[in-house]
From TrEMBL:
It comes from the Archaea. It is found in: Cell membrane. The keyword Membrane applies. Its main location: membrane. Keywords: Cell membrane, Membrane, Transmembrane, Transmembrane helix. The chain crosses the membrane at residues 6-29, 41-65, 150-176. Coiled coil: none annotated. This is Membrane protein DedA with SNARE-associated domain. It is a multi-pass membrane protein. GO terms for cellular component: plasma membrane.
Length: 185
């Protein structure tokens, strides 16, 4: 199962580059479900572009900005149009999750938005209760979302670099002939 996701992720990155990362993270941020696991796509993108900071930076920026745009879209939809994203079957957040997220926001405020975005599994959940039950402005929400998403994506980048270096080290052990064979594939 992981192999097919990784192959699809690499194909998307090969064809569309950082744009594919942006779209998948925006969809994840907007809570519309997992079209493709964002973590797999990001790590595959880092492995594909290499470990140099200049190569990883556009992928990093696309993921952080995509997640922030998606979460800001949900925030705006709830605040301005009274949309209930949990009524959609694509949104994997139930009422219990929203109640817990709302209590977390009530206790900690905007730092809870940043913290929840840095933790897999809770990313984006605070967009709905924050929009419903607070006077937080959209720019302040977006800033908190951006901080948490940057921490999350930074951790993913470290994993991607470790995987890329691991592949490089393993391929180096194979020798030049094996590398030429793999390159021909």
């Amino acid at each position: 199962m992981f192999g097919s996701h990784a192959a699809t992720a690499l194909a998307l990155v090969d064809s569309y580059g950082a744009l594919a990362v942006f779209v998948v993270f925006a969809l994840e941020g907007a809570l519309v479900g997992k079209v493709l696991p964002a973590r797999t796509l990001f790590v595959a993108a880092v492995v594909a572009v290499g470990v140099e900071a200049v190569a990883v930076l556009p992928v990093f920026a696309a993921a952080v900005i995509g997640a922030t745009v998606g979460q800001s879209a949900i925030f705006a939809a709830v605040r301005r149009f009274d949309v209930d994203p949990t009524s959609l079957p694509l949104v994997p957040v139930g009422d219990g999750g929203l109640d817990g997220a709302g209590r977390w926001f009530d206790r900690w405020g905007l730092p809870a938005v940043a913290a929840s975005n840095a933790v897999p599994g809770t990313r984006g959940w605070l967009a709905v209760p924050t929009a419903n039950a607070s006077s937080v402005s959209a720019p302040r929400f977006a800033a908190a979302s951006l901080v948490g998403s940057a921490a999350y994506v930074g951790a993913l980048a470290a994993i991607g670099v470790a995987v890329a270096l691991g592949f490089g080290g393993a391929l180096g052990l194979l020798g030049a002939e094996a590398l030429a064979t793999l390159a021909a594939l």
